[in-house]
Amino acid sequence: MKTILLLSITICLSEIVSAQWFWQNPLPQGNTLYSVEFIDAGTGWAVGASGTIMKTTNGGRNWIIQTSGTNNDLRSISFTDYNTGWAVGESGTIVNTTDGGENWVPQTCGLNKWLYSVTFIDANTGWVVGTSGTICKTTDGGKSWVTQTSGITNALESITFTDTNTGWAVGSMGRVLKTTNGGQMWLVQETGTTHWLECVTFSDANTGCIVADIGIILKTTNGGENWVPKSSGTNYDLYNVTFTDPSTGWAVGGSGIIVKTTDGGESWMPQTSGVANYLRCAAFIDANTGWAVGSYGTIIKTTDSGQSWKSLTGVSGNTLYCIDFTDANTGWVVGRYGTILKTTNGGQMWVSQTSGTTNDLFSVKFFNSDTGWTAGKSGTVLKTTDGGQNWRVQNNGTTTYYTLRSMAFADANTGWIVADNGIILKTTNGGQNWLLMTSLTNNDLRGVTFTDANTGWAVGWSGTILKTTDGGNIWNPQTSGTSSGLNNVTFADANTGWIAGGSGILKTTNGGQNWVKQTVGTASGLNCLTFPDANNGWVVEGPGTILRTTDGGQNWVAQTSGTANSLFSITSFNAKTVWAVGLCGTILKTTNGGITFIYDKNEDIPNENFVLYQNYPNPFNPSTVIRYEVPERGMVTLKVYDILGNEVAVLVNQEKPPGSYEITFNAYGLSSGVYFYELNADDFRSIKKLMMMK
Predict the structure, then answer these.
(1) What is the DSSP letter of 11?
(2) pLDDT tens-digit profile of 293-345?
(3) Cα dist. 28→25, 97, 253 in Å?
(4) Within 13 Å of residue 261, how many CA atoms lie on the same side as its CB?
(5) Are residues 567 and 631 in the same domain?
(6) Whole-angstrom distance, CA of residue 508 vs CA of residue 440
(7) Are residues 587 and 483 in the same domain?
């Protein structure tokens, strides 16, 4: 998929500030990492999504994020010594460093293609490969690049050279190319497969190995004249293979798979990685010491040849749904599978707490540093009175175990929870007992807030807004002016409030008697907002979108979050200190309001080969048609997710020949609201929104 980057730069002469959202978990960051390279046991680099480049000088214990100068995905990295290296990626991106990564300078091959792999033989001579059979070569360290004729239009995923003349490139449809004259001429080699070939490596001019989709491993002992399939023992896609000597090598791939060989690739044995995320690349400095990187910032390391692997990232990679702070230092986040994390130093360190449940937790609220509650799936309500050291189950007061979505507390005793199917619960004794309130709606409720013990609002699907002035005994509907789902509500005082949802942002200045839609400059599906005062506010959505206002919502400006991960919750301590959380353990923080002088707008356009069309009709009820195009045979998945990232339907999961396809998605039984559909076909990935309206 290509991305057009429209970049506008606004520079304030009195204050020039770089992007000010920083990762707190996973550490060092949570963007997908595609490539890693080490030049000794201490010094290495990793590159990935959103222009991520990181360097370590202590074997991966600590990583320093370097400024790449681009927001494009970086797919491959190559270093020839401690100072000189290149990274390549999306839209023809090439960046070069000559000082170990302190500075990265853009280079160009003159082609707006995805570049998937880069290799250098020495400080001057290197090659890049990418989509549409792209091969480019440089002999002056990247100052100039010359396009070479590959003779094919297939995407090329990987390239390797054993000397300045002899090299191989591999890619889609089982394509293997070989050159013996530095790339002046490339000849096709037969592999016997049409699957996507992900990576190629050679230990000498004769002995090489290729890994591919569905666990395919190919080996040659005659320079590629013949490629012989070997059993990997897995059906997961394999993305990378590396050898430390002619006998010892590792391959990594989907769902944390690692396989090892000690006989030159003749046989492969599984290893336990300890992670379930995709592993995209591995690097070994010797037969014992190696690293693997992958999706959502995953970094693991072994010092015993892969017998054991240790995570170098964060305390949790589970998706986080809600965050709450009692002061600038003390806060909690909750998420999938009962995840609860706590910080006492403003997020510099997060410690996992034992929730006692595996149910997803969608809301957390603390009255003070000791007393707090969390709620979530299957009617789960937990309370702590010691800052989270111990969490105790509370009876939610109902016999129906709906998912509990949001909570609010006026004091240590008085609180409310809203849930699916219009459920509203209230406690007046700190949660010992919860009473079912009458909401007069069956629509799912997603957000609740109170300005005092009597006055509160609840919002949910189909544009539902409810207000109470008697502590929740009676809830009166308010007119939202939309039928879209509403996800979150907050008030700065009894009159001034905002709602985030499928139609954008709504604002009231009279306690909800009237709600006015605000222009936010983004698509629908806003997840959560926060206002520390009547003027300053932030709202988040996926992927990685953070918008800020300084005038109460009249104007909203995009901020650079530094991630493409979906963000589900945001909270503010004041107009400068703000946290956001989201997919796969993402925790971000700013201490200057998220100020940045670079604003990006990314517009996805169809890939030259693959296309995912907008569904029609949209909005729909209950069925809609999704069309897509596949230019070559390969594995295709088409899945539908709800706004929280939960999979709700698998529409396609099979190998497809080239062609145009359409499939009908029937959403009968699903709630109204925003959903997402995602197409994965080989290395192509595209996500679009659809809206179910009953």
Answers:
(1) -
(2) 998 899 999 999 999 999 988 777 888 999 999 998 999 999 999 999 999 98
(3) 7, 21, 22
(4) 26
(5) no
(6) 22
(7) yes
- pLDDT confidence band for 683 (50 / 70 / 90): low
Same structural domain, 517 and 587 = yes
Each residue of 75-98: pLDDT tens digit?
A: 999 999 999 999 999 999 999 999
Which of 295, 314, 333 delimits the end of a domain? 314
Q: Is residue 411 part of a domain?
A: yes
Q: Are 300 and 310 in contact (CB under 8 A)?
A: yes
**Residue 642 DSSP symbol:** E
Tens digit of pLDDT for each residue in 585-600? 999 999 889 874 322 2
Mean pLDDT of all residues in 684-688: 79
Query: How many beta carbons lie within 10 A of that of residue 276, not counting itself?
Result: 14
- Whose structure tokens read 């692997």? 309
- pLDDT number for residue 10: 27
The pLDDT tens digits for 542-592 are 788 999 999 999 999 989 888 888 899 999 988 889 999 998 899 999 988
Backbone CA torsion sign across 234, 240, 244, 245: positive
The CATH number for 244's domain is 2.130.10.10
* CA pair distance 236, 198, nearest whole angstrom: 12
Residue with tokens 């492969």: 268
Picking from 632, 675, 29, 4, the residue whose alpha carbon sits closest to that of residue 295 is: 29
Annotate 157-192 with b (16+ C-beta within 10 A) or e (fewer). bbbbbbeeebbbbbbbbbbbbbbeebbeebeebebe
615 and 491 co-located in one domain = no
Which two tokens mark 224? 């590629």
Question: Which of these, 405, 414, 526, lies nearest to 468 by C-alpha position?
Answer: 414
Q: Domain for residue 399, yes or no?
A: yes
Is the bond into 246 cis (omega within 30 degrees of 0)?
no
Domain-terminating residue out of 603, 637, 668 = 603
Does one domain contain both 367 and 435? yes
477 and 581 share a domain?
yes
Q: How far apart are CA 691 and CA 167, in angstroms?
A: 49
Show the DSSP H helices in 410-499 as ranges: none
Q: Give the strands of the sheet with 290-294, arranged side by side.
A: 279-284, 290-294, 299-302, 310-311
For residue 522, what are its two tokens? 């983004």
Q: How far is residue 19's CA from residue 22's CA, in Å, rounded to a whole number?
A: 8
Same domain membership, residue 348 and residue 278: no
pTM (predicted TM-score): 0.76
CB count in 10 Å sphere of residue 222: 11
Domain that holds residue 287: 190-314
Instruction: Measure the CA–CA gap between 653 and 678, rounded to whole angstroms.
Output: 12
Same domain, 345 and 445: yes
Q: Is the dihedral of CA 631, 637, 639, 645 positive or negative?
A: negative
Could you report how far apart the first and last alpha carbons of the chain are, in Å? 33
Q: What's the CA gap between 129 and 136, in Å, rounded?
A: 7
Structure tokens at 629: 């195009």
Q: Does residue 358 fall inside a structural domain? A: yes
Q: Rounded distance, CA 394 to CA 375, Å?
A: 10
Query: Is 49 a domain residue?
Result: no
